[in-house]
Design a protein that fits this description.
Layout: E1 10-13, E2 19-22, E3 27-29, E4 33-42, E5 47-53, E6 62-69, H1 73-87, E7 97-102, E8 106-112, E9 116-118, H2 119-122, H3 128-147, E10 150-151, E11 160-163, E12 168-170, E13 177-178, H4 199-202, H5 209-224, H6 233-242, H7 254-262, H8 273-276, H9 284-310, H10 314-330, H11 332-349, H12 354-374, H13 376-380, H14 384-393, H15 405-412, H16 415-435, E14 447-449, E15 456-458, H17 466-479, H18 483-503, H19 506-524, H20 533-559
Helix pairs in contact: 3-5, 3-7, 5-6, 6-7, 9-10, 9-11, 9-14, 10-11, 11-12, 14-16, 15-16, 15-18, 15-20, 16-18, 18-19, 19-20
Length: about 550
């Protein structure tokens, strides 16, 4: 240890494999000069030392130095990124980072030294009101951090320090996520501490403010484990809602969590100007919850339609529909596979050829498992393409709104998932109109009228084999080369809406999508189309745009 008169023995880190004892004090040189005194913490990737500042405005005071060994350019980038994020945060409930010092083999993060203990230890003697106060301070720190675009990602009692005055200070932004940064973790790897990681992160979702809110709820649950009595109703509701597996059921921001916990709004000073001026975006939890609900409704209705054709008993069909609906809400891809199996059974019962009977479930399985694994939005709404079929049947809001279906995908999904789902939806609608006439797979009509173009093509018999399907598909493209335009148009409209939602400029996105959609439908129109086809397209797109605009405006007003 250091003595007041000079240097004696001190314990230092060797930074290669083990810790060594040497006879000289280790000094860290930056804008200030710091003498390491004793190690006060050790994690999986770094050590924390109490040090004495030897010059500058902190001269003579204790600081904490986090020593992060780096063995590659990637590790150096991560360590510097942690320091840059922490340096930009100034809040009474966040440990202040004073300086980031890059060394040859280490990165040093110099922070204020908090004389106290981790929250999990301090809370062992807390009453309920003290637990509530500690949680409130953590949430106030998150109100500020989220306003700066920072998601902590590792909220837990051990990362909250309590000083002698009872003030809680959030620390360790080593795995924080900053809006606009490239993700440094591989897809499929959850970042955080088991027990405090939100379920959607384990499912591959990107971190949001709601993941931090879940971790605060898990922290509250840990702290309450030491209490001998049942928590009060407000605190119990706070734990139940913040740790809900469904992000849409949690408080949708840190300040909303403060209000739920305490009954008051967050202090005005803790909400940063950046948060007040944040782009008008729908929350990730709202989007995910809505996608799951739509997927459940689609699976339930499709399940009923398919089961009613297979089973004579209507009650059994309703039971299958209810089961598929619940399954598709909880486990979207498994529910979608259930619908695909029912469709395959129906094809076989209708004497479909081996080509059709195998092709439909194969394509559906590739979409659900392949695209669903690659894209989180598709994973939550794998039955998105089937919505075109549902709208086309007039079973939800009527066929007049089908032209605006890409607006729904764009509003609820990120650009890639929205474009993929919209393109697949257009493809599904074309296949449906070329196959199903006057009922399920009835081949009574000699031709099919394609949606929005009015072009008439031969009905695709379900008795064709794989070779016949390929030949007839090539004939369709040769006879009507505009056929792929609908797929590209839907993908573009959904992508425009999604990008506008991401930028917080949904009004501009709506205008661009509607104008572009109207031009696209006009280009798609066939010279042989019945009169009124284009007018019907425009009415459909306009109605969908009005509904989207009104709902989006109401959501904006509710969110303030």
């Amino acid at each position: 240890m250091l003595t007041s008169g000079g240097v004696s023995r001190s314990v230092l880190i060797g930074y290669t494999i083990a810790y060594q004892v040497v006879t000289e004090t280790r000094y860290i040189e930056g804008q200030g000069r710091y003498a390491l005194a004793e190690m006060v913490g050790r994690g999986g990737f770094a050590t924390v030392w109490r040090a004495r500042s030897l010059k500058g405005y902190l001269r003579g005071k204790d600081v904490a130095v986090k020593v992060i060994p780096v063995y590659s350019a990637g590790e150096r980038s991560r360590a510097l990124r942690e320091g840059q994020i922490a340096e930009g945060l100034r809040h009474k409930n966040i440990v202040e980072t004073l300086e980031v010092i890059p060394g040859d083999h280490e990165i040093y993060l110099v922070t204020e030294y908090v004389r106290g203990m981790p929250l999990d230890e301090a809370a062992k003697g807390y009453e309920v009101d003290e637990i509530v106060d500690s949680l409130t301070q953590i949430l106030e720190a998150l109100v500020y951090a989220h306003g700066q675009g920072i998601i902590h990602r590792d909220i837990k009692p051990q990362n909250a320090l309590v000083d002698a005055r009872g003030r809680v200070k959030l620390t360790d932004f080593g795995v924080a996520f900053r809006a606009g940064d490239t993700r440094l973790t591989r897809v499929g790897f959850a970042v955080g501490t088991p027990g405090y990681i939100a379920p959607e992160i384990l499912d591959g979702a990107d971190p949001t403010a709601l993941t931090d809110i879940y971790a605060v709820g898990a922290t509250a649950r840990t702290l309450l484990a030491h209490q001998p009595y049942e928590p009060p109703p407000r605190l119990k509701e706070f734990v139940d809602r913040t740790t809900s597996p469904n992000p849409a059921h949690r408080p949708q921001s840190a300040w909303a969590a403060v209000k739920l916990l305490t009954g008051r709004k967050a202090p005005a000073g803790s909400i940063s100007p950046a948060e007040r001026k944040a782009p008008d975006r729908l929350s990730g939890g709202f989007k995910e919850g809505t996608l799951r609900i739509i997927n459940g409704l689609a699976a339930g209705w499709l399940g009923y339609l398919l089961a009613a054709q297979i089973l004579a008993d209507g009650a059994q069909a309703l039971g299958i529909a209810a089961g598929l609906g619940v399954l598709a809400y909880l486990l979207p891809r498994l529910g979608a596979l259930g619908v695909i199996v029912a469709l395959a059974v129906l094809l076989i019962r209708n004497q479909a050829s081996l080509g059709f009977s195998a092709l439909v479930p194969v394509l559906g399985g590739v979409w659900v498992m392949g695209a669903g694994s690659a894209n989180g939005d598709v994973r939550r709404l794998p039955l998105g393409p089937a919505l075109a079929l549902l709208f086309g049947l007039g079973t939800l809001f009527g066929p007049t709104l089908v032209a605006g279906l890409p607006l729904l995908f764009g509003a609820l999904m990120r650009p890639l998932g929205a474009s993929l789902s919209a393109a697949a939806g257009a493809f599904t609608l074309i296949c449906y109109d070329l196959t199903v006439r006057n009922g399920f797979f009835a081949n009574g009509n000699p031709f099919a009228e394609l949606p929005y173009s009015g072009e008439r093509l031969d009905v695709l018999p379900i008795t064709l084999g794989v070779g016949g399907l390929l030949d007839l598909s090539q004939g369709y493209l040769h006879y009507f080369p505009k056929l792929p335009l609908l797929i590209l148009l839907w993908a573009a409209m959904a992508g425009v809406i999604s990008l506008a939602e991401w930028a917080g400029k949904w009004v501009i996105g709506l205008v661009v999508a509607v104008v572009g959609g109207a031009l696209g439908y006009a280009l798609l129109l066939s010279p042989r189309a019945p009169s009124g086809t284009l007018a019907s397209d425009m009415i459909s797109l306009g109605l969908a745009a009005i509904i989207y605009g009104v709902l989006r405006y109401l959501v904006s007003r509710v969110r303030g």
